[in-house]
Amino acid sequence: MPPNDSQVGNRNMGTHWISPVKEAGYPRRRGRRTSGGGAFVVVRGRESRPHGEGRQGIDTHSKPEKRFVDSDLQADQAWLLGVQRKLYQWSQAHPEDAYRDLWNWITDIRNLRCAWWRVSRNKGKRTPGIDGQTVGSIRRDMGERAYLEDLRQTLRQGAFRPRPCRRKLIAKPGKPGQFRALGIPTVIS
Fold first, then answer.
1. What is the mean pLDDT of the chain?
2. What percent of the chain has pLDDT over 70?
3. Could you give the CA distance from residue 157 to residue 103 in angstroms, rounded to a whole number?
4. How far apart are CA 32 and CA 61, in angstroms?
């Protein structure tokens, strides 16, 4: 059955003919939308249908790609796991030898960023140490990048000196009059 004017778009403008056949024996693909969505595509004169002529459909089965907010952190954590794996394999292969190049990996900025991430998400991040500094005050006053770079330089120069912990006595649950000591370390070096 030839198409009439209402079924045919302007073939020069890249539209196509939609078959009006709706008989019971007409073969159709299951699970695909046959109408709606998408846009008509204008193609060059020599292109055939597989190259994009006609209606471009919208894939209703695809799911949106999940984007990770902190991809730098994931890259740092993957690097750290790789370092740990290498150290483990080396220690298994050389049980009697001491590994001598560990300091470079400890002072690597990626390792320091992973450590900062763990400290900054800890429950005690709002509790100040002996110097009165918290994670929030470091972020506000210095910034994370500047703090970590300063810490890295201090470690590499050998000038780092750890500060004493703030000591707090906490009552033991179920034991009146007995206390346990809790050490609260400083965040800033």
1. 76
2. 62
3. 12
4. 9
> Would you state the structure tokens that stand for residue 43, as one six-digit string?
């193609």
CA distances from 134 to 116, 124, 127 (A): 12, 9, 6
Contact 144, 116 (CB under 8 A): yes
Which helix (DSSP H) or strand (DSSP E) does residue 30 occupy? none
Low-confidence residues in the chain, pLDDT < 70:
1-70, 189
In the chain, DSSP assigns E strands to 39-41, 54-56, 166-171, 179-184
Contact predicate 55/39, CB 8 Å: yes
3-state DSSP assignment of residue 106: helix
Contact (CB, 8 A) for 134 and 187: yes
**pTM score over 0.85:** no
